[in-house]
Write a structure and sequence with these properties.
6-stranded mixed sheet, 14 helices, alpha+beta, 3 domains, 6-stranded antiparallel sheet, Rossmann fold, binds adenosine-5'-diphosphate, binds magnesium ion, 562 residues, single chain
Amino acid sequence: MERLRALLKQINGRGYKAYKQLAGCYRFNGYDLAIDHVQGDPFAQPSRISIRVSPAYLCLPAEYYKSKIRKTATEDFLARAVNRAIAEHVKGHRGIGKSGEFRIETSGQQILVRNALLIDGEAVEARLTAGLPAAGRTILSRDAEEMFFTELPAVVAQALCFEHLDKKLLQHHVESSEDQDYLRTQLHKHKLVAFVADHSLLPRESGIDDHPLGGEAIRFMTPESLACTLTLPNRGAVRGMGIPQGVTLIVGGGFHGKSTLLHALERGIYNHIPGDGRELVATDASAVKVRAEDNRAVSHIDISPFIDRLPFDRDTRSFCSENASGSTSQAANIMEAVADDCTLLLIDEDTSATNFMIRDERMQQLVARDKEPITPFLHRVRQLFDELGISTVIVMGGSGDYFEVSDTVIMMDSYKPVDVTRKAHALVGHGKPARTPVDDLPAMVKKKVPSPVRERLNPARGRKQVSIEARGIDTLLYGRYEIDLAKVEQLIDIGQTRAIGLMIHYYATHYADKSDDLGTSLKLVLKDVEDKGLDILSPWKTGTLALPRLHEVAAAINRIRE
Ligand code: ADP
Ligand code: MG
């Protein structure tokens, strides 16, 4: 520690490059500070540092990391604590560029597996970035000294010492996370695909603000006929709405909360922080939101169950397109989800292609079936469940055609769910179980997505051997490709986008030749990362990654545009 102080004194007032000498490890009271990478100039990516807090200083009881889920929750809690402590103790911007700032990456309303802060044995390692301060290109040692000798120790003392943490909050964070996880694992046993607890708060501040809607928000209340009670390890019994396996419709007038419910189900694959309102909304972990995505690139996907007999005999068994239409893109999205072993599809009419979803009786009379390439989803949704075990939840306020194929119909009425299954089925006029309107369709089969050849996943660009960068959550630059992920709606964090880029590279170098289907190889990649941690993806230490699901990794590969 005194060595660092001496070094700083030595380089004061010198050119920025002299900061390079700081790289190394320094012992502080209770922790080791490693300066892992020093930035080249004040405007470059800030320097990367890591703080390893000793077990004797941290004193974190083992119950907080004894299982994977508890460990992830505690890591999330501690990273947020560091973030808050930075806001409190760090003066921040001083000098030019990013001078004087400390930062740690944290998640939003969800609790994700990240590598910004890791519990490693009984120690904790936090990875931060530090903007080493300069005026122009001149080193400001006095400010750097303040950062490392006053501010950082205060941050560590407040956030990474068990004694100073709010133990009640930490315990609640961990137990709540454990309950959510457990809830998700219980769905299958109860033949459910999702569960929304009473009193959940689903609406958000806005489409771009994931915080709970303040003010007049109406809390969720389960209709008696769909109520079930599950017992969680920490919280005990919770009552809520169980959405059964099969085909479920969410109907209701405009602005009554249909999309809000579906959106909560989309996010129910993640655990949420206490206070979010969706802590007890759990969805089948493999659930995929599928939508129309015109202009997306599609390569070698069999969309023939939905689209066949295109004009000029274009093959749809191995369909390729540089810019797919609304219906072909939605078909490709579904077939890819099916290939990824998804067991729940989530669909909103707001973001679907109408001609893909329905074709009403009159239109069927006017346009003969053999002149229409599209087999609407309406005709396939039952088969997906009956033959492949894939359930669907559809928001459908605009067409009653789906009553016939549904098992459950939930009406949203002024944000309150009402079970209208019987009523809807009575309208169709059959007391029989749901059935497909046409009965001569060939069976649905699950077809693998072929592995792209290794050369296709070359990460080189220009003179760089490996060029991978996330430019926002939605845009991944991989080699010479720009992959558009804007419509992959369950991708929620730029850390996931970064990890996806590195996982594609990892896949290309380790597994691309091991199997001819993408899903099988990606499962191996995911398993490596889950077993050994996100760090295996990067040649140097970073704290900026978050774990995506297999589906989102596959989604990126499937969207590569030649
Ligand atoms: P729909 O899909 O049925 O047209 P939305 O789900 O888009 O309706 O909801 C319409 C509006 O109502 C949105 O602005 C949403 O934030 C708000 N909203 C949804 N659920 C609630 C609720 N429980 N309490 C208060 N406002 C809500
Ligand atoms: Mg809507």
